[in-house]
Design goal:
The protein is an alpha+beta fold and about 170 residues long. The protein is built from 4 helices and 4 strands, in the order βββαβααα. The chain is globular, with a radius of gyration of 17 Å.
Length: about 170
């Protein structure tokens, strides 16, 4: 199943390659240039996990990033609980310790209305709200990373990304 959101240019695929790309793309045949440039590349692993189709999309996103330098945003499926909050936040701290703070932006995948989520599921997603970064991530991170690294991820990096002109 796949879906294209025209307003944001997003393409969602849940378990296979989107139909348009099923017989097109790298390793299959040449695709013509469109002149369209992405501002952000996003990839996610949804409920079905790393299926062959999803892996193909992930590899295409990585290749596009290496070719263009366009930033990548990623997330996993919250319902599968593949990483606890602490494990994700500890990964953030480890990435900062390894010198990647200047390459990361703290963000969250939240929206004001999603009609495909059963409202009865929301109690099982307690950290899926607009203030997750401020109320949960930052207090945890402050004990593990520097204030300068937090400011870099929250202010300097987004500014650099949005001020970029090409």
């Amino acid at each position: 199943m796949d879906e294209i959101t025209a307003e944001t240019g997003e393409l969602y695929t849940y378990d296979t390659v989107p139909f348009f790309f099923y017989h097109r793309g790298p390793a299959l045949n040449a695709a013509p240039g469109t002149g369209v440039r992405a501002g952000m590349l996003k990839c996610a692993i949804d409920e079905h996990g790393m299926t062959p189709g999803v892996e193909r999309v992930m590899r295409a996103v990585a290749a596009a990033h290496h070719r263009t330098g366009v930033p990548v945003t990623v997330h996993t499926h919250p319902g599968t609980r593949t990483a606890t909050f602490e494990a994700r936040a500890d990964t953030l701290a480890q990435m900062c310790r390894r010198g990647y703070a200047e390459r990361m932006v703290l963000s969250q995948d939240e929206s004001c209305y999603i009609d495909w989520i059963d409202p009865n599921v929301m109690p099982f997603l307690p950290q899926w709200h607009y203030l997750h970064i401020h109320h949960e991530v930052l207090p945890y991170a402050r004990a593990r990373v520097t204030g300068e690294q937090i400011a870099t991820m929250l202010t300097a990096n987004p500014r650099r990304f949005f001020e970029k002109t090409d």
